[in-house]
Design brief:
The chain is built from six helices and nine strands. It has 168 residues and is an alpha+beta fold. It starts with 11 loop residues before the first strand and ends with a helix. The strands form two sheets. A seven-stranded mixed sheet has the order 2-1-5-4-3-8-9. Strands 6-7 form a two-stranded antiparallel sheet. Strand 6 (119-122) and strand 7 (128-131) form a beta hairpin. It has a single domain, classed as Glutaredoxin (3-Layer(aba) Sandwich).
């Protein structure tokens, strides 16, 4: 399992982008994790699934609400990673109004979740292999802080916790 001090695994996530001009949509687009994180401070959080209750009601909205504070604390970008396809993440981004605030990144094959060791097996609940709920502060591709939730919990991966760590 990934830990503080480790480099993010080599992986490609997918991002679906809406472009307002002429109603054109561009995406999904590959995001090379190493290149995208290089030289930046990233507030990265993972969660089990788009449109799920806790993820939609608490997890994503908390980061959307704290964008200005996170940026003031030195965070360059906020990433939400979930084991969903890029089209679902794009639809969820529109619903959550994350444009320009949180990058909604799809880990469609759970390769990033597997590489970090942060998987959650929800096979018996009809959801298959998913990402565990967590947050991490990443500086120039290396994990500076890591907060992993226990099963069914939402106590340490919230935006307020990561904000406090970014300010420290």
């Amino acid at each position: 399992m990934i830990k503080v001090g480790d480099t993010l695994p080599a992986a490609t996530l997918m991002e679906y982008s809406d472009v307002a001009e002429g109603g054109c949509r561009i995406g999904p687009n590959p995001v090379d994790v190493a290149k995208a994180a290089a030289g930046k401070t990233i507030a990265l959080f993972g969660l089990p699934g788009a449109f799920t209750p806790t993820c939609s009601a608490k997890h994503v909205p908390g980061y959307v609400e704290k964008v200005a504070e996170l940026k003031a604390a030195g965070v360059d970008e906020i990433w939400c990673v979930s084991v969903n396809d890029a089209f679902v993440m794009g639809a969820w981004a529109r619903e959550q109004k994350t444009d320009g605030k949180v990058r909604m990144l799809a880990d469609g094959d759970a390769l990033f979740a597997k590489a970090t060791g942060l998987t959650l097996d929800l096979t018996g609940k009809g959801m298959g292999l998913r990402s565990n709920r967590y947050s991490m502060l990443v500086k120039d591709g290396k994990v500076a802080s890591l907060n992993i939730e226990g099963p069914g919990k939402f106590e340490v991966s919230d935006a307020a916790t990561l904000l406090a760590q970014a300010k420290a």
